[in-house]
Amino acid sequence: MIRQFKDRAGFPEFRGLSNCFNEHFMQHYDDSASPWPELLLPVPQHPSRLRLRGFNQALLLARRLSQRSGIPVLDNSCQRRQGGSAQRGLNAEERMDNMQGTFRPSASATMMPGRRLAIIDDVVTTTATTQAMATALSDCAAARIDVWALARSNHQPES
Q: 15, 52, 97, 137: most buried, per Cβ within 10 A?
């Protein structure tokens, strides 16, 4: 279902996946002592990838979650630099290297000091992307950064 959503604009699959994602998110904060995030930050796509795909799946997830939770989406928290290759097909070490310096906080990062943030992504494999984004945002003095993804992949391409 995730592949259909990502690669073939499978919006019927997206509705089911996002409903499940939203339920888990809401249940987690309802049941735990963890404080609710104050802002949802979808992982940005590089403009060329966005043109190719036509949509940012992390942004769609964040917007749908915002409708359900009432937590605002800050969809321009980071900018993605030029260069770097797609993560698909890279092994863990290559993914970490590929993501070094990929993100930089945008002007909207001034809204983040002391705030609780949730980075929203579609699939996390090695955590390279979300770590790179969290690192870029760490200078913004956020009180807490949680990471939420639709799925965690255990598939690691061979070196």
A: 137
